Amino acid sequence: MARAIDRLEEALQYWEDICYWLSIFARYPVGVKSEVVAPFVGPIKHWEEFRTYLLGAVKNSKSFDWDRFSFLMNEQGEMKGPFVDAFEATTGSTLHTLLPSGLFSWARSSRRVYRITRELQMMLEQTSLEGMKFSDVKWPFDSFVIILDEPVPSTIGTKCDCILVSTENLYQDHWFRCFRLFEKNDNSSRRTPRHIKRQVEDALRREDFEEVLKCFKINSGVTRGCSFTITTADSSEKLVTNLFKNCKSYGPAEDNGGWERSIRVALGLCLYLSTLPPKSAHKSGWQPVVATSKPDPKAILTGAEVCTVADSYRFSLEERSIFEREYQGGGGYQVSAHFRRGHWRRPPGKGSDPNAPRVIWVRPTLVRRDRLTENALPGGSEHVL
């Protein structure tokens, strides 16, 4: 869990690192002679102020400070401008340019983190959201984080174990529901070491710009994995059909498999939470993420709280074996016991009412139960703990 929630800190460190290098290019454009043209404005100028702003002034801020820490999209929903161009030229991507807005939304809205058990994650991933509307979803907070015990693999070889769901004002008064996936990576260190920064500052004083560029090339080759998609919070939109077809997406286009599984988990969790009673045994109380008497005053997780959510259904050993095979992509055959994907439906008597919310969870169901041993439970049955 600790490593998964650390994705937010790692992503912010990466953003800070890129802004650090861009600030050097902007301050010494003639001497450094970098191919990156970086204007000394916005986050390139004010990036060192962001942590203090996020942890302190955020409580008194009514809206995000776009002028200092990011930029607004244009009317076509495009990310363009000198800062964006400089960021893309440095990293090969624009994925992190809007990260401060997402972290601000989370810090100001809730600082809440949901950790879901592996069993619940598997069930949610195998539950279809086809036909669901935004109006069916009761968001627990405007912005929140989900951490996964089992990283979600994508079709391009990466694995995601942290999801940030946020509501952001990305264009004038237009609000968007945003989803960010953060990649699990064993090599989590993305910050330029302090001794390298001291070496850079010394080189700048000596006007040894070749040494500066050498340090940059050595320390800027690894990127922090992140995917990002946005969609308007329009209650008439269908979640699955419109989320992937009509929304603006900033991430690998071919990574649709990982996106769909992650979105099913995020939205399925919201639906599942709305079915649980206030004091459910399947949802823990809120506990501090940072369990220490002396938290780092600059860590963005300071003050964050985590809640563990489990499924109300417990697998039998036989079911677990079959579901694990399906979950890992092993597939099944017509003559084998296998799971049928679940879905969300309207309450009894409301099936023909298009305005009735889909709040009844029909869990993934075990097909060909006769292939199990005698005492196994069929999937989809309610087993009260």
Protein architecture, described:
The chain has 385 residues and is an alpha+beta fold. The protein folds into 2 domains: 2-309, no CATH class; 317-371, no CATH class. The protein has 13 helices and 12 strands. The strands form 3 sheets. The protein has an 8-stranded mixed β-sheet, sandwiched between helices. A two-stranded antiparallel sheet has the order 9-12. The longest helix is centred in the N-terminal third of the chain and has 26 residues, at 2-27. Residues 330-335 and 376-385 have low confidence and may be disordered.
The main pleated sheet reads as: 8 strands, mixed
Class computed from helices, strands and strand pairing: alpha+beta
SSE series: HHHHHHHEHEEEHHEHEHEEHEEEE
Number of domains: 2
The coarse overall form would be: elongated
- The value of Rg in angstroms is 23 Å
Helix content: 25-40%
Spatial order of the strands in the main sheet?
A: 6-5-4-3-2-1-8-7
Mean pLDDT: 75
Name the assembly state: single chain
Strand content is: 15-25%
Number of strands: 12
Q: Are there runs of 5+ residues with pLDDT below 50, and where?
A: 330-335, 376-385
